[in-house]
Amino acid sequence: MREEALFLSKGADPVFIVLHLPDSDPRGAVVVCSPIGAESDKNYRREVLLGRALATRGIAAARFQYRGTGNSGGDAGSTTLETMADDAFMAADELATRTGIKRLGAVGTRLGAMVATRLAHEMGRAPLALWEPAIDAAGHFRELFRSRMIRRMTLGKAFADGPSMMTELESTGHSEVVGYSIHSALVESMAGVSLGDQAVSPGQRILLVQISESDGLSADLVALREHWEHLGASLATHHVHGEEVWWFVSEQFEQEERRDITTDIVDATVRWFDESAGPEVVI
Amino acid sequence: MMETPVVFRSGNDDLFGIVRSPTSGASARGVVILPGGRYGVSAGRNRVAVRLSERLATAGYHVLRFDYHGIGDSSGTVGELRLDRPFVEDLDAAAECLGSFGVERLVLVGDCFGARIALAGVDRVPGVHALVLVSLPLRDYARGESSAVRMAERESIVQYTRKGLRADVWRSLRNPTRRRTYGMLIRTKTRQMMRSVASGGTPDPWLSGRVIDQFDRVSRAGIPALVLYGTDEDDFADFERARRGALGPALARSPRIEVETVPGHVHAFRSVAVQKQFLDIATRWVRRNDAEQLGAS
Hints:
heterodimer; A: alpha/beta; Rossmann fold; 2 domains; eight-stranded mixed sheet; two-stranded antiparallel ribbon; 8 helices; 10 strands; B: alpha/beta; 11 helices; 8 strands
């Protein structure tokens, strides 16, 4: 297995991308679409481990960072759902060129699920794995707002002190959650967007992964599964027992590869793509 | 923008980093950014390391941001993050990597655990000319023990023994989190007592002896350093206490060690406003210090 990091550029702002390539010709290839903000940092090592695990199973992987985030160039205020999707397509093109595989798979986490779903559909019946997907953007941003209020409380400020995130976004064009900037361009580009409205293809294989303490899928995910099954997609689900606090860091340091949540989610996803990467699915 | 992904060897691990080259072209001046031990991903929270790289590259520096072993895109694993075991080997490898870009004079910018690495690296890594130490912890503890260390200091062993005999405390032991917390508290309290006895009654048994020695070396070598804290940080309270005690002589000896504060917390850059303050202060100080050093030579 080998790894290559590079900057891809169509315009002025380069997209940072890391390729995980098997030693021999790959029998499948997967693009990993990250979440944003603290969720992206939280998921970072897990995505690295996924890329490495896929590559050791003969499946190439591309991880990338959206323009305006992470190591990529660009202004954070210009990031929108459209630019995120463009960046995913650019990463997919690079991966396809490097591996010769035309129909890739996609993984998306949280808001990255919106991007991965779009990418997988455009690529035509591509296998799609979604980790803790944000079901609808509005609900996701409400969750961020709650994280922000919790942060304020830990600083000893009143629960409702200060302007709300949405008010701030409207008046200044940006806000923040635990030190991560959230810009109105992104929020507006996702207004009314939900996973259920995203197109999926008949026969498309989709894996939904949920992390929770409770048993079984949440009502939202059950509804999404039923909706997509109704559209003809072939759904599988995986429940990871545990709790992931996406916007806060535990005081205890725990190596990501030793966390049960991480080993479970990575193993299940690799196994699932491994099954998808048979000759009847890829190319 | 001129950024180059790099991979360099530290022990058995391949470390991943990105070097941003100065906009002005060739330069022998370089900066290594050493993140704290939380997420520790090279871009930093809200891209603070990326933004610092941009600013310092514009000022004429090669800037390296990288992932420690076991973190981000680097290989390896981290068993435990301990302040008394800073990743100096990773820093050494990073400095060598920047050397291949022609860098001879290094500024180390570290936050929390990264600041401990920077301080420990002064006399072990060649070419270090200046330090920016953000929220430098002065105690030695493992990641996650910070609260236990401060709790253990709050009350005496007699007071804790009395509490330990209470029925509600025993009942709360059914909760595994509480059990872990109490266990950590007992271990920490025992260590503090042993250290206090071993120190023979010196006034600052809680203060890391390594940090005192390292500050002493920085001071004697005349290495310029900026020490930056948030006024509400526990680590700043420790620093003020240490300044009146064991750290006093080293700080008094060197006028080149400057202390600056910002209101609230700067540790881990948990607000956009603090990130901007840090970027302004660090960039300004690095540039001014460089101008002074060049002027003096």
